[in-house]
Amino acid sequence: MITISLCMIVKNEEESLGRCLGSVQSLVDEIIIVDTGSTDRTKQIAEQYNAKIYDFEWINDFAAARNYSFSLATMEYIWWLDADDVLLENDREKLLQLKSTFDRSIDSLAMDYHLSTGPDGKPTFSMKRNRIVRRACGFQWHGFVHEYLAVHGKIVPSPIAVTHQKEKVHTTRNLDIYEEQRAKQTPFSPRETYYYANELKDHRQFENAITHYQAFLDTKQGWIEDVIAASCKIADCYEAIEKIDEALAAILKSFEYAVPRAESVFRLGRYFMHRDALDQAIFWLSMATTLEPPKESWGMQQSGYWTWLPHVQLCICYYRKGDMIKSHYHNEIALTYHPDDEMMLSNRKLLLPYQPEDPN
After folding, report:
1. Single pTM value for the model
2. Which residues does residue 182 pair with via DSSP β-bridges, in sequence order?
3. Glycosyltransferase 2-like domain location, by residue (predicted)?
């Protein structure tokens, strides 16, 4: 059986650290906690799980902190988590079984990362991350914000998922770090430019975000998943500032990079809704319901774009056309994904007189 060091960097995580460590303590052989300046009970909680606790002076560099935590590990493999991550029971059982049969030729074990889940417990927003790596490989973290672990060799995907259960309120921390680096005239890699644009968008600096998404695309060096996402996010920014025609151009640009994805097709349908071109909107939204996520993709997957979201918009389109039966039909499909959604339940009451029959 392989041995595993769990390595974490934390700061003021008293609300979530115990939940995280409690879900994985039995699976690891040592717990390394690197504290970057907690002023709450984080360290005391870590002590309850027999963690080895180290201090690290925060220098606005997540990769530096993570590399320090990795340098303290002593077991064969290193597993990294954040304090608001957990392993659910089913995934704990999978990892326990895998640990006893682990192939020591594996350099990195990838796990799904479920960033959000629906009422049914199924992931609505997920991606893959390299999670457990062979210590002897000496893999390093890169990036002062939105850091990534550069791995190579034998990389194997697993059926195990880490579930993110965020407790903290979103802050300007990451954006502030980017702005500090820009003030120092630090050169940004294409990846850093993309993530900087994401922070700008999240803080509603839409025009500035568009500028940096475009700068990222102009490098022609971005990961294909980020390239497609950047095109869609440019469209969202233009829509937010009511430049709908520019949004259309951004959506269509995404078709140059790969076979149309549900994310782009959905946005195309929404564009035609803005133009009150309902037949065109219905065409594209209906297409979105037939598409599936790319197989074997490590990019972020938002399942709503090929499940419930287009059905909600189809419900609205058919309502505006006066076709209440089809409107009801699509609202009912959307409800199968989110049965407690207040908006869709309100739609159901409005459309109650119409039979839920298949319009085809």
Report:
1. 0.90
2. none
3. 5-114
